[in-house]
Every structure is written in C-alpha cells, then in structure tokens.
Amino acid sequence: MPETGQATRSRAQRDAMTGTRIRERRMMLGLRQSDLARRVEISPSYLNLIEHNRRRIGGKLLVDLAGALSVDISALTHGAEAEQLDQLSEAAVAGAAAAPELERVEEFLGRFPGWARLVGLQQRQISHLQRQIDSMADRLSHDPALSGALHDVLSKVTAIQSTATILAETGDLDPEWQEKFIANLSVDSTELAARSAALMGYLDGSAETELSLATPHEELEAYLADTGFHLPLLEAGGAPQAQLSAVKEALSSPAARDLALEYFTRYQSDARQMPLAELQEVLAQTGPDPAKIAAQFGTDLAAAMRRLASLPPEPGQPGLGLVICDGSGALILRKSTDGFVIPRFGTGCAFWPLYRALSQPGRALRDRVSQSGDGDRASLAYAISMPVPPMVFDGRQPMEATMLLVPEAALPSPALEQDRFLAIGATCRSCQIEPCSARRDASVLRESF
Amino acid sequence: MGHHVLLIEDEPNIIEAMRFILSRDGWQVSCHSDGATAVQVVSDLRPDVVVLDVMLPNRNGFDILRDLRAEHATAALPVLMLTAKGQAKDRDRAEGLGASAFMTKPFANAEVIDQLRSLVGS
What total number of domains does chain A contain? Predict the structure, then answer.
C-alpha cells in the first residue's frame, strides 16, 4: 500500500530525529565522530550524513550504534509510542472515509492503549497483506514460467471439460469413440494432477518443482551459472555439438537445448577470435576494458564483452557480470556479479545503460553505476546495442544490447570517476530511489527503514 | 461440405475433442500444432476461420497472428484466439494485434461452435 503524504511526513520526522539523537548522545558521551564511526565500522563521513539526518538508518547499523552509545534502540528512535502514532496515522489516512479524529490521535493512544495497539496491529497486517497482493500480482504479470504453467493447467482442464461434455451430452456416441474419450479423460486427469501439484509447488517456492517449470532461458542460465560461464571444452577447440552432447542431461527441454546450441556456437566464434591465452596476456596489460580488448583483437565490442564474461572464475575474485536483452528489452541472458542485482523475471531498471544503448545503436556507453544508493559497491557498466546477424532489408532486423558489469573490486586500479555515480535499481519493486521519473511500480521497501 | 476451420493448438486431447464436436456440427476440420510452421499452413490450407492458441511450441500465437495480419491474403481472415483465464494482458495483446474474437480456457464446447458460426456468418 503506498505510504500517504501525512504518514510519510510522520515517518520522516521520526527518522530525522533519530540522526539528531545519535549526535546528541555521542556528544554527551564526549565521543568524537571518528571514534564512534570506527566502533561501528563505518566511515566518519557516512556517520556525519546520518547525524545530519541525510541518510536513513536501521537494521544492524542502528543496533551497533545503540550498543556503542550504551543506549536502548528505542531511545534513539523515540520508542514504540512514535511507531504506534505512525501506524494510527496511517490507519486514519487509509480509512479517511470513516472520518477518524486525526487531531485526537495522541489522546486516543493515551486513553485506550489496548484499542490503539489493536488498530495499529491491524494496520500493519493490512499493509503486509497489500504488499503480498502487489507482489503476487507482479509475479503473475511478469513471470513467464508461471504464466506458462497456468496455461498448461487450464489447457488440461479444457480438454477434460470438452471430453466430459461429449461423453455426457452425445447420446448416440459410438462405443469406439466412447472408449477413446474415457481413456483421454484418464490420461488428462492424471496429467492435470501432476501439473497442478507442480504449479502449487512453484507457488510455494519449492526449488525442485521450480526447476521443472523453468523457462528455456532459465534452464540455460542455471547450467551456465554452474560452469561459471566458462566452457573448457569449447576453449580447447571442441565443437558446439560436442558441448551440447556433454550437457544434454542438464537441459531438460528441447527449447533449452536449441538455445544452448546457439550460445555454444557464438561462444566458439568468440573464443576463436580471442583465444584464452592471448586474451589473458592482453588483460594483464589493459585490465578488463572491452574497448581495448576489441581493438586488440579486431572484434566488435559486444563480442569482447561476452568474452570477458566467459573468463575462468578465479578464487576470491568477483567475476564479471553480463546482461543481454533483445530489441524489446526482454532479458535473454543474465550473469550476475557482486553488487549488481539482476531480476529473475521481467525487465530491469529503466536507467540501466543496457536500455539506453538500445536507443543509440552502435554507440559505446560507459557508466559507473551503483544500486546501493550511495555509491558503495559500484560497478563499471559498458553497454552497446548492435544488429544481430544476418543483416536484412525487410525492416525485421533483430537488435540486441549487451552490458558488461565490472565490479570495482575487479579493477587493477580505482575507476577514474570516483566522485560520481549513476544511481540505478534492480527493479522498481525492490528499489528505494525516490523520486524516480521512470518508476513503473511502487516499491515494496518504501515502508522499511 | 461445411466451412473449413483450422485448429492451431498443441494439446492433443483438446484437438481430438474439438475435431469431434466440430465435425458432427458439419465443419471441415484441419489441425496443426507447431507454431513455427503455422503461418505457412494457413497459407496452404486457406481455411475460412482459424482457432489459434496463444502458447504453442516454437512460436507463440501472437507472432503468428501478427504475420497473418501483415499478409494481404490473410489480413481479414477470422481468427478466434484462445487465451488462458486470468491472463487479461494476453487478451489485450491479442486485441491489439487484430484478433477477431477471444475465448478463455476453459471454455464450453457449445461456446466454440457459437463463436465460430458467428465468425463465418452462418
């Protein structure tokens, strides 16, 4: 449920006071900002932002700060009473049609604490249920595996209903047909039971069932994730078909195997243009810069990005991330990396350089991006969009955008743009950046600390 | 011989049931279950009406419908689109692409016959 302006103000005021109380308490104890920051393992500049109410605070850091200041958390957050007032205010605004006397909310809390707790508790439950509904609606809208599973179940129901109607309403049904339709009913009802069980397991979050309902792209990504996106057989000159034969068991659907063969064929082509040993020599001199790699080997930028993302995993080193989308923006390959969350379903944040590249075909883009909101755990994002060969003249040329993610921890030296970053999210539902001109959905985190 | 209907659907027992009830109703029934070759099959068979499922192997019903509408010979061909109940976005998308009518699974046999009769004007 979206937070109302009044409730937001109330929460913001409480948050604002938290920073001030931390500062007051620290000064009362005669602690320097740098001393307190060291004790809770954050930078003095970040503590300074908190104390001046320019950063929200919660969770472990709030616990640590309360501990370091030898005070209860409630003394910093103004205790449960403020939270109850927040909840009552939210309830009042959400149920404005009942005309609650909002100006007397403190009196209500004081005179009827039990009833006030009940109203607050119910408001929390309503908010929680609303978030669950939003989340389920989002999942139904954007989860292709779920959509496919529902369609499968309903198709079986349709077959059973049609067959049963024929049996029930066709008086002169030939015995041979009758026998056939009864057999069909038996088979369909068994399959319906299995598909329904799989669907329920999926909704319950059962990993085993989920795997059986995965889309072909997810199947391929799951396999590639297990290999670290590095395929020694192809690196050694093996054929794509041989690679496919070696992994057939891991890919249950024909569609996933078709996708895998396409992927392996492209991988082989990239590996031939940029052999691993030579690539590693160049990397030692240039670092993971796709433009320099592409120039060195005379390849296109997208191929260099894919090749960098297929480097063998190194213990203790973050791998490079890769995201590829088609011309519609649908994500068709996801390789995650440290500090950059890629949604499993649907599209990502509209501000990803990947999508900007789609609107500027052929133009190389580079940004220092961060999903943390404060520039921590930033990555360098390189992106480009290009036509997918073969080229055609009929106006149906497929396009593809590729984005390589290089976590700063993987860079031999700090990125040049240390003083700036592009704040982006993973998806709207999990993003707290406000205001955001590209927001499509409310964030489920808005009410969190 | 009655009107010719082409069922493009991959659930074999839906095909069997539909073939049975439509044949008894006087329709000439053809069936096809592969999305990748569906447009070519429509072009070859020239049916009076098509029943097209959204989810098919190798190619989805939306892409097939888009191609049918782009071809002069099939631009006005009546197409009854089968979508799944609860997937309103599928229906919206099919409407945008020029579907002549919709039915949501599960549907009743009599509904299909009524809908097809309406589409061919009989």
Answer: 3
Residue A423 pLDDT: 87
pLDDT at B85 over 70: no
Kindly report the pTM of this predicted structure: 0.46
Higher pLDDT, B95 or A299: A299
Distance from CA of A269 to the nearest CA of B (A): 25
Domain hosting A200: range is: 144-212
pLDDT score of A135:
63
Q: Nearest chain B Cα to A158, which residue?
A: B106
CA distance B76 to chain A (A): 22
CA diameter of chain A: 97
State residue A79's pLDDT score. 53
Q: What is the ipTM metric for this complex? A: 0.89
Q: Is A155 on the interface with B (CB under 8 A)?
A: yes
Residues of chain B contacting A188 with CB distance shorter than 8 Å: 13
Q: Does A189 touch chain B (CB under 8 A)?
A: no
d(Cα B72, Cα A150) in Å, to the nearest integer? 34
Select from A340, A349, A339, A359 the least CA-distant residue to A437.
A349
The predicted structure's pLDDT at residue A139: 61
Instruction: Tell me the residues of B at the A interface, defined by beta carbons under 8 Å apart.
Output: 11, 13-14, 16-18, 20-21, 24, 53-55, 57-58, 84-87, 89, 105-109
Contacts of A202 (CB under 8 A, 6+ apart): A145, A146, A149, A209, A210, A213
How large is the average pLDDT for residues A116-138? 76
Taking CA–CA distances from A145, the nearest residue in chain B reads B55
Alpha-helical (H) ranges within B3-108 are 12-24, 38-45, 61-70, 88-97
A368 lies in the same domain as A411: yes
| pLDDT higher at A8 or A76 | A76
Show me where the domains of chain B are located.
4-116
Residues A199 and A118 in one domain: no
Are B103 and B111 in contact, with CB atoms under 8 Å apart? Answer: yes
Provide the number of CB pairs (under 8 Å) joining chain A to chain B.
Answer: 68
Out of A148, A150, A162, name the one closest to residue B109 (CB): A162
> Which candidate from A159, A170, A255 shows the least CB-CB separation from B14?
A159
| B106/A154 Cβ within 8 A | yes
Q: What pLDDT sits at residue B87?
A: 63
Please indicate, yes or no, if residue A9 is contained in any of the structural domains: yes
Residue B14: partners with Cβ closer than 8 Å, 6 or more residues away: A155, A158, A159, A162
Residue that terminates a domain, selected from A192, A212, A232: A212
pLDDT band for A149, please (50, 70, 90 cuts).
confident
* Assigned architecture for domain B4-116: 3-Layer(aba) Sandwich (3.40)
**pLDDT > 90 in chain A, percent:** 29
Per-residue confidence at A448, pLDDT binned at 50, 70, 90? Answer: very low
pLDDT at B99: 94
Contact A162 B89 (CB under 8 A): no
The verdict on A203 touching B (C-beta cutoff 8 Å) is: no
